[in-house]
Amino acid sequence: MTKRTLKEAKQEEWKREDLEAFLVQESQDGTDPDFESLMKASKHMVPEAFAAFLILFLEEGRNLRATNRAGQTVLDVIRTQSAKGEYVTALSQAMSQAS
User: Fold this and answer.
1) Burial class (CB in 10 A: 0-12, 13-18, 19+), 57
2) Per CATH, which fold does 27-98 belong to?
3) What are the distances in angstroms from CA 22 to CA 2, 50, 99?
4) In terms of Cα–Cα distance, which of 88, 97, 96 is closest to 38?
5) Where do the domains of the chain lie?
6) pLDDT tens string 41-79
7) Residue 4 CA from chain centroid, whole number
8) What SS3 state is found at 22?
9) Measured between alpha carbons, how far is 83 from 49 in angstroms, rounded to an integer?
10) Percent of the chain surpassing pLDDT 70
């Protein structure tokens, strides 16, 4: 089996099962598991997969406004990261639709 490059891995199509795997996150420090799920998804998914994940996340009744122990939402955190513009847009749109 050959190793895939990071670029190849990021270009893969994400299946529903792949997205669902990110819904199951546990917190080691008392942080809301929904925050953990969103944070991990934003770190490991391409923007298109993250947008699809947000739809699934909402369908499952999860909380887009979940916070970490410092009281920050994922949107608060990723807004400070310049490379996350598409993620900020997707999350902002999902939050406005969920309201």
Assistant:
1) buried
2) 1.25.40
3) 26, 10, 23
4) 88
5) 27-98
6) 999 999 999 999 999 999 999 999 999 999 999 999 999
7) 23
8) coil
9) 16
10) 88
